[in-house]
Amino acid sequence: MCALLTSAASHFQLWLDVRRGGSTDMASGLFDRLLVADSQASPATEPRPPTVRLTAEGRLMENDRCAGACCRIDSPEEQNAALALVGSVEWLLVEGSRAPMITAENLLGAAEATPTRIAVAIHSAADVGGLAFALERGVDALVCDALLLEGRGGGAITEALQICKAQRLERGSSSAFPAAQRNEGAGIELRAARIKGVVPGGTADRVALDFTRLMSDDEGCLVGSSAKALALVHAETVESGFVPPRPFRVNAGPVHSYVLMADESSKYLSELKAGDTVLGVSRDGSTRPAVVGRCKVEPRPVVRVDFELSEASETAHVFLQQAETVRLATPVGCAALPVTAAARDGAILVRTTTAGTHVGKAIGARVVEH
């Protein structure tokens, strides 16, 4: 596996790809690195940027040190192979993607708060701005084939590269972007939120999560319409007299809702399947993994519970089935609050974070959900 370079510069970079030939005259003025094939001699242009060699095995070599890997991504399987390298290489160079923006966003989301930096090959001037500012962070390097600069669109590409590099330098290095906040340790911090109102939500495709192990009386899952504010919904452990308890079940809400997974990423309820591992959470914030044995999707009437953090004006909401057996955790006392009894100024327990998500992973870019 390639070693990580701890002293590498962290600013945004432009690489000039001369593997197919082309002039290196611009290299010393605009580009930070030259990308050459393993069999090529280093260009004689002086002064010239550092040279990175790409081997036949797909390794990026800087002198005799492995500085990263190159992946061609033209399929979901190839994207998964690239994602598997995140965290174990310094640089990940992406070439040939049929969907460069989506691929870049997925890799940036996975690389957040890891040492891995993302370089993406461009094909036109139109690629430059989107990739340079993807997810508000932008990739760490753009790679331009030298022959592109000599073609009909070369002037537009050069201008786009100059502009985006200046803009990135104004914003500071990529390391200045805040890392997404992550909860660490064995527990989750739960906070009190004030209910602002409860309104009918029509009929929704509701998902009931049936787990492979029983849940305790104060245990449940974190769900909500925004990944930034998830409410603790109890398992169906309480005797009601009308229906038997289902201590293995959390009635989690409609298919659009997020649920917090065991690795503290989030998923839509519609994405869950048997074998997935959700984070089981107790009122005191203690957690354990909960394996999904079955997902039951059924049309049911729902309500929308709007809530507000006690120390802020930010609001969020959660849709839940309109049923007495669906209960929200409360910050005081032992009793959970049936959603049918929820009312304005009541208090519930929620988990909040300032980080938005992309494909379930926390990111530092701004994300607004209403």
TrEMBL record:
The question of whether NAD is a record keyword is answered with: no
The biological processes this protein is annotated with in GO are: amino acid biosynthetic process; aromatic amino acid family biosynthetic process
User: Which GO molecular function entries does the Swiss-Prot or TrEMBL record give?
Assistant: 3-dehydroquinate synthase activity; oxidoreductase activity
Keyword DNA damage set for record: no
Swiss-Prot/TrEMBL keywords: Amino-acid biosynthesis, Aromatic amino acid biosynthesis
Location of the 3-dehydroquinate synthase C-terminal domain? 193-369
UniProt signal peptide: none
3-dehydroquinate synthase N-terminal domain location is 54-144
Name under which the protein is recorded: 3-dehydroquinate synthase
